[in-house]
Design brief:
The chain is mainly alpha-helical. The chain has a domain at 45-99. Helices cover 61% and strands 4% of the residues. It is built from 2 helices and 2 strands; from the N terminus they run E-E-H-H. The chain has helices at residues 30-68, 73-98; strands at residues 2-3, 9-10. The chain has a two-stranded antiparallel ribbon. A hairpin with a 5-residue loop joins strand 1 (2-3) and strand 2. Helix 1 (30-68) packs antiparallel against helix 2 (73-98). The protein starts with a strand and ends in a 9-residue tail after the last helix.
Length: 107
């Protein structure tokens, strides 16, 4: 600790007279410090879920087509199912982020 010009103590964290140091967000700290990390994790999950559901379904359809000699029908069907699964995940994530259970009423 050191004394500043006005004779008050200044701690190691930079706070003087109980004020919040510059550059740090106000509040409890968790949302301010790590909010960007939570948001980036959500976007990363969305990206990975959409990519792997579409690509995985397409590759599975292609493999099944080569196995059963039904080219291109299983690839097309599973591609459509993969896209539907990706869109469903997008809507579920948007509903969760919006905090809305408006579509479903508790009974």
């Amino acid at each position: 600790m050191s004394l500043n010009n006005q004779g008050t103590t200044k701690g190691l964290g930079g706070e003087a007279n109980g004020r919040q140091p510059e550059g740090r967000p106000e509040g409890n700290g968790e949302a301010g410090r790590y909010g960007w990390l939570k948001r980036s994790g959500i976007y990363y999950a969305l990206c990975m879920e959409m990519t792997f559901s579409i690509a995985g379904a397409t590759l599975l359809g292609w493999w099944l087509d080569t196995k059963f000699d039904t080219t291109p029908w299983l690839t097309i069907v599973l591609l459509i199912l993969g896209v539907a699964a990706a869109i469903r995940f997008l809507f579920v994530l948007l509903r969760r982020l919006g905090g809305g259970d408006d579509a479903r009423e508790e009974r």
